Amino acid sequence: MNHLEWVKFAEEDFDYYFQLVSDEKVMEQITERAIPFTEAQENFQKILERNRKYDIFGTYKVCEGGKFIGLGHLTLNATNEEEAEIGYMIVPEHWGKGYGKTIGRQLVELAKGTNVTTLKAIIDPNNIASRKILINLGFESEKVCEIDGLPGEILSRAI
């Protein structure tokens, strides 16, 4: 695997974002539904606002050799600045190729350059692949619960 290129999403990147969130396979274990165009546009504007607000925190477009692989995000907790959440989405054609592990590792490294002391990740408890990646990155299961009416598992690790 070559070096992954990371750049924060910008206005012209909406199509890449929409490619992910409108894909039922990608969203199956996130929201259990594809995100419609108008809702995706609203969500993307929030991403752009966060990206402008912070230097390191934000949502990154991840590419390899100019080819879009997916996204990774490091999002600061609005009420506890010592805590941030990591997450990623990968285009299905790139699943099972080690990108999740690489993106996860790079998000942890990114967080180490901040004042954050605790990282969280929220997954569908049935997402065995993401759970395995996070456990291998030092995350531990904190609790399995319902989040916004969907099954969720919160994992955390100190950094």
From TrEMBL:
Pfam families: Acetyltransf_3. InterPro entries: Acyl_CoA_acyltransferase, GNAT_dom, N-acetyltransferase. It comes from the Bacteria. The keyword Chaperone does not apply. Gene3D superfamilies: 3.40.630.30. Coiled coil: none annotated. One of its GO terms (molecular function) is acyltransferase activity, transferring groups other than amino-acyl groups. Keywords: Transferase. The keyword Transferase applies. This is N-acetyltransferase. It comes from Lysinibacillus halotolerans.
